[in-house]
Design a protein that fits this description.
13 helices; seven-stranded mixed β-sheet; about 375 residues; Aspartate Aminotransferase, domain 1; globular; alpha/beta; about 15% strand
């Protein structure tokens, strides 16, 4: 098999002249902490997503933590301590709930896609439910509005992997009480680390702003209004982020083009397929997720596979310290299937197609 040099599972180029020049200007103006550039980013996000309010946070994880903390304070009932969540999720929302002493209720995914059925989520709602976390995985959407039409329940959209994706002509993250995003390196726009909360509720917006800033509005003249912590963003990160958000349509096109490139190439390779054979309108397939019963063979045969391919993370119910939440529910057949046999091929808007072609040729030899 042909050797491949310097092919990583994710590639996004932020070394652009405009970003670098803006960063220098921020340093010259001594704009370091959260300030006017952060506000510009929040306004740009609101404009792009047609949302009323946006609050930047240090990470997607902190955005989830603040959102759940707000729900817990708002409800103020220790008996309402259950958080319903998909078994297929990155660990962040589960950890946020865990540290807030909330009980996790896991829901298996659909057979044909790694997100839960809306009716399964609804069936878990009871008198102890605090909220549902709809994990909008890799641009896929749980139908939040359908759930809202059936039950009155607080909904947090974890759209960490779905910034700028749409469902039914609305941006993912804008349909629940709150939506969160991540701007870590493996995202459609990145500030290295970073996150955001969006909402259309002025009450939620004002409360979250206090929670993320030690309970104060102005550090120089304000009193202690309410309990809070320090989850401020920085203008340095905001400078890196702003230009990418403005040009997000260019990045979106690159990611979608890459998906169709893979779809064409993989159709000629046996024993491997895309998790989603059809691209739903509005979805941005951030990661190229594929499925193969010969996954272990692939990782064994491909040299430096840990750099070029990414193993999909384990299902939440497999986590040792979450076992106490399982009760009688021990089987998550569909979720385990994705955990065992799905993985990511090289993804991101700035991948080298020639190198990916070599990788796919090698895969064909392995799987034929």
């Amino acid at each position: 098999m042909k050797k491949i040099k310097n092919l990583n599972w994710w590639n996004i180029n932020i070394n652009r002249k405009k970003i670098r020049s803006d960063l220098v200007k921020s340093f010259d103006k001594k704009l370091f902490s959260q300030g006017e550039i952060s506000k510009k980013v929040e306004n740009e996000i609101c404009k792009k997503l047609k949302s009323k309010y946006c609050i930047l946070t240090p990470s997607g994880t902190s955005a989830i933590f603040l959102s759940l903390l707000y729900f817990k304070i708002k409800i103020n009932d220790p008996k309402k301590n259950e958080v319903i969540i998909s078994d297929r999720s990155w660990i962040s929302p589960a950890h946020a709930a865990y540290f807030l002493n909330l009980k996790l209720v896991f829901v298996d995914t659909k057979k044909d896609k790694p997100v839960p059925d809306e009716n399964d989520l609804i069936s878990k709602i009871n008198d102890k439910t605090l909220c549902i976390i709809c994990v909008q995985l890799n641009g896929r959407a749980v139908d939040v509005n359908y759930i809202k039409s059936k039950k009155k329940v607080l909904i947090l959209e974890d759209a960490a992997q779905s910034f700028y994706s749409k469902t039914k002509n609305r941006f993912i993250g804008t349909n629940g009480d709150m939506g969160i995003f991540s701007f870590s390196m493996g995202k459609i726009v990145t500030s290295g680390q970073g996150g955001a909360i969006i909402t259309n509720s002025n009450k939620i917006y004002k409360s979250i702003k206090l929670l993320k800033n030690n309970g104060i509005e102005n550090r120089y003249v304000d009193k202690w209004n309410s309990p809070g912590l320090n989850f401020k963003f920085t203008d340095i990160q905001a400078t890196i982020l702003l230009e990418q958000i403005k040009k997000i349509n260019e990045t979106k096109k690159k990611i979608i083009d890459l998906y169709y490139f893979y779809k064409k190439r993989l159709s000629d390779i046996p024993n491997i397929e895309l998790v989603d054979e059809k691209l739903v309108e509005g979805r941005i397939p951030l990661y190229i997720e594929c499925f193969s019963r010969k996954k272990n063979l692939i990782f064994k045969k491909i040299k430096n596979s840990e750099k070029m391919l990414r193993v999909n993370y384990q299902s939440l119910h497999k986590t040792i310290y979450f076992k106490k939440y399982l009760g009688k529910k021990k089987s998550f057949k569909n979720s385990d299937n994705y955990s065992s046999y799905s993985f990511y091929l090289p993804s991101g808007p700035d991948q080298n197609i020639k190198k990916i072609n070599i990788l796919l040729n090698n895969l064909k030899k392995i799987l034929s």
